[in-house]
Amino acid sequence: MTDKTTKTNVYQMVTDRIIAELEKGRIPWNKPWTGVRDRAFNRISKKPYSLINQMLLKHNGEYATFKQWQDLGGHVRKGEKSEIVVFWKIYEKEELNDNGEKEVKKIPLLRYINVFHISQVDGIKPLPAEKLNNDIKPIEQADKIIIDYVTREHIDFHETKSNKAFYSPSSDRVVVPLKEQYQNANEYYGTTFHELTHSTGHKTRLDRLENRVVVAFGSETYSKEELVAEIGSANILNILGIETQQTFKNSAAYIQNWLQVLKNDNKFIVSAAGKAEKAVNYIMGMDKSE
Known about the structure:
Layout: H1 10-23, E1 40-42, H2 51-56, E2 61-64, H3 66-71, E3 75-76, E4 83-96, E5 102-117, E6 121-122, H4 138-153, E7 156-159, E8 166-168, E9 173-176, H5 185-199, H6 220-240, H7 252-264, H8 268-284
Parallel strand pairs: 1-2, 7-9
Antiparallel strand pairs: 2-5, 3-6, 4-5, 8-9
Helix pairs in contact: 1-7, 4-5, 5-6, 6-8
């Protein structure tokens, strides 16, 4: 598998793809899921792609490079357009430190490869669909994740009659309105996982929040952290299969806000998605996907 090592700005490619979706009125991190917990994955490794790649790819199911499909005996149809997946490649550079000693510095560079969906390939049958474990109902599983996480991390969690939801870094406290205050119970979980994603940034966890205080509304730091929480919550809802259109924010003002933010910083979405993935893994105790 080869990667693109030209001077192409991969950050801009990713950002342009996300912006294109937003301009169509679609929120890439809030995909129109059907409730089926399957994702885009690589046909060879059988592993799901990373969160940023889930947002970039147009379909669920199997993807592979042109050569990988060819090696499997398949043929990508003429005229089919590829999509991209991105990954970090670590380069080592030898430098002298302050003491004049040689040190190897590791530099992560964002790269991409072209992939094709199985629907674009002839001569290959899809893998059998994996059966899901339906012993635990999604809502019960959602409650278990919340309880397990706040208990493990000793978070001061309050579900109480309120007109606001928030996370306080200074007191490590999460407050969310009562379930019965929501018109749709799934919205409760969207809100709760949003605030719990914020809590992963505490200095005792992923140490993502600055100065242990809530940053100023409208600032770049605030926007980035909000996007981390948005993506994190949407991802957990999808994993559980309890996302609905009611759990998604898709107002024109909301979309315009993210368009402005992304157009001002082409590294913004890659950074936020990476942090969101770490947050989700932290909350759920999941292994890191490729």
